[in-house]
Write a structure and sequence with these properties.
This protein starts with 10 loop residues before the first helix and ends with a helix. 64% of the residues lie in helices and 0% in strands.
Length: 108
């Protein structure tokens, strides 16, 4: 949206364009409506709230992708452990046995 921001006449139109596209946003917008928010036409506030709402799921998807392919390779074991733990911190919904399996699978 940063690339095409100048195409919109005002923040309300820009917010509408953002809200019309990505999946998952519609449920979030319904929750805003249910909470009594009447207008969402401040682009900066909208984008901050949007990022806050979905940032964790984006980080989790990234961590999931990385942890599934993480290999120790030439890393020291301590470095591999640190990277694995950093990624695993975003995957609180994963069972420990699954994390252990991926951890062991990535070791040399």
């Amino acid at each position: 949206m940063e690339h095409y921001g100048g195409m919109y006449p005002d923040d309300a139109a820009h917010v509408h364009a953002v809200a019309s596209n990505p999946k998952g946003i519609s449920g979030w917008l319904v929750s805003l409506h249910d909470a009594g928010v009447r207008r969402v036409d401040d682009l900066d506030a909208f984008m901050q709230n949007l990022q806050g709402q979905f940032e964790d799921s984006i980080a989790a998807r990234h961590a999931e992708s990385c942890i599934c392919t993480l290999k120790q390779g030439k890393w020291l074991v301590a470095d591999y452990i640190q990277e694995f733990c950093s990624l695993a911190s975003h995957l609180s919904n994963w069972p420990k046995c699954m994390l252990v399996s991926y951890f062991q699978g990535g070791l040399n």
